[in-house]
């Protein structure tokens, strides 16, 4: 299961629309979640609207949070999106089997079984999260909160039963470039996280759309391992509803 988690505080201003890029990610099977980070003021109506539109186009969730809420929000959104994706897949299979995609239409005992399966899959399904960090100048005071959030997310992912991997990117790649740079390749360990942030050069433009597109390219070319069983054999697998 593939996700992009974008952490930003403002409006994109370079290259392809991030809304278009997020829609492209969704077509590739990658969910895009967006956290808008506040610092006592707000990112403005335009920024907030863009954040919501990016997430909507990417089939994900959006939240506007203060820095003190960032860590718990990042963990919540990651897990909630996993469960949401599994629920949609289960609903689709139920519709094919029963002619009705609603879990609520099942008898109570069967409904309980489906909910149990969803919870179990949420813990055991393989998960990859590509963190995409806005490193424009206005984000500099918020980087400590972002670092803490990533550390806590790694701990949360390591506590799951299923395999979990994280990669970290930031944009812009340079003060004048419109690209993003990879700071950490796919990893399931905390090692390397601490070395990311001292190296970040804050400032420059906000090429959110091009950055999303580069992360999509990384998903395409990276070694993403085997597909999980539910992708090839059906979400419910050996479970009988």
UniProtKB/TrEMBL annotation:
User: What superkingdom heads the lineage?
Assistant: Bacteria
Q: What residue ranges are annotated as transmembrane?
A: none
SUPFAM superfamilies in the cross-refs:
vWA-like
Q: Which residues form the VWFA domain?
A: 1-86
InterPro entries tied to this protein: VWF_A (IPR002035), vWFA_dom_sf (IPR036465)
Please report the name of this protein according to its UniProt entry. VWFA domain-containing protein
